[in-house]
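Hi D.,

Good news: the full-assembly prediction came through. Inputs first.
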Amino acid sequence: MMQEESGLDIILNTGSTAFQGAVIKGGRKFTDEYTQEAAYCDINPEDFEELGKPWVVKVTNEYGDSVILRAKKTDRQQRGEIWIPRGPWANIVVTPVTESTGSPRYKNLQVQIEKASGPVLGPEELMKKYYTKRARPKWEENRKWTA
Amino acid sequence: MTCPVCGIACDDIEVELDDVSVVTRNACIMGDAKFKELRSSHRITKPLIEGKAAPWSEAVDKAAEFLVNAKRPFFFVGSETTTEAMAVAIEIAEMLGGLVDGNATICHGPTVMAMQDVGQSGCTLGETRNRADLDIYWGANPEDSHPRHLSRHSIFVRGFFAEQGRYGRKVVVVDPRRSTTAEHADLHLQLKPGTDFEVLSAIMTILNGFEPHESFTEITGISREDIHKAAEMVKEARFGVIWVGLGIASTRGKHYNASMAMRLTQLGNKTGKFVILANRGHCNVTGFNQVLNWSHGFPYAVDFSTGAPRYQPGEYSCVDALRRGEVDALFCMCADLAAHLPKIAVERMCEIPVVSIETAEGPQAFISDVVLPGVLDAMECEGTFYRMDNVPIYARSFCDPPFDFTKSNEDTCTQLRDAIIQKLEAREKAKEEATQAKPQTTPLTDDEFGQRLDKLVSRAV
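Then the structure:
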């Protein structure tokens, strides 16, 4: 597989930031703010160079699920590790292996990362792309949150 | 006022509220955002059925129907609500023989398991503020997850015996990232991910008077000098606190890591006073463990399908039950599961009826079939929160919800419970009537049986 060969094996950690927390506690989960605060990926400068100084990256897990995120170069990360804020983007690649505790692998997960060009989806587009509710009649026309 | 956001549940918030704006004092960025929800434009104020505004009674009826018709309903009790509401939700789960789980399962569930294994030597946040002279943040980044943690309860605050504040305390941060909390640390152990168990063991080895194995630095990425420094700090501490975060519970090893941290606490108690506290994420995530423990004897991941509570994380826990696809209806209260569960679990949620109590639009409301508008606890209704040190705090309310069909999430759950009881009674009644309507059959006597058999045999011949 060509794609896999061009990718870089890396360890994924996820976690929270106060800003991402403020967006979700403030109920702004379907706004661009959420994309700004949760749809990025922190990368160590050396890994960043190796990936070819990307603007956006694609992170893929062992099941082949992948998500596209903005790339952020930061020296807070150690080499060989990336970090994504908690949220629907990170959870596309988090695996449900709970080691009989109920808690999925939010941290220390082996993934692949590669340079990408695709758009970083907003929260609503992401939900629409990855999750289709069965037999939902005319969801779009019906949708009226606050009425 | 009490803040209904993170595990510290700050109780010194001042709020100025008028018709259009909310001004808070003392609240952090997350708390402020939550209080501003009182006057937000995206609040869900009407019940929704498949995304369409519907009357309240219809929505409750539909929700009850989904849950009653399910063979294995799942009740996910979120944590930004009061223990009173949680108790009713657990009652419904028991009544319907479903599964019940709370936010702990995807948060500090493994730490809770470790508490059962090893036992926790704990204290209140007041004691950490007044006494602690060593703060160890293990896999925790409170500056982001609990913004007022450092200034109210740990490193910066001046306490009775810790009158020097930051200068009287030593701070160790164990985190593979150089997090914002790590910048305040006297010692940052930047370990390789997944080696918490090894690092904890190494500190214990040194405290017991031995030297860690020569492969230690290669495995964990921490120098021998640093680990000795950390062990020395533990030995010298008069009152040490290990604050464990999700770095311990979400990585490989899970509850084994947390167990090891608790054993280190036991060892620390030989030279000084040592406690361990979990940095619980939400204002009442501890409350769920408390309520379920009190009512049914188990902290989370409970199954009522046999009529008696059974506890098995990894089997009855939310992610596992959804992943296996056995759950056929989901009730989710005050939690955004669609944003915080792995993809495969959310995919299952898309296949089954989902009933949610939600305050704002977002992934959970997006995938829900019925959305019941949520009430903001500690603002629009009162109730009890358990702080992350297991101290109950009674949160008062200061305004009313923007609708009149429910007063609180507890009220919503009670109405739902009543609707479910009605449906169950109606179903029982229909069953009784069906059995009565059926013609009564009397067993055949031996003679009658013989005659009929003869007739059949003669026809066949």
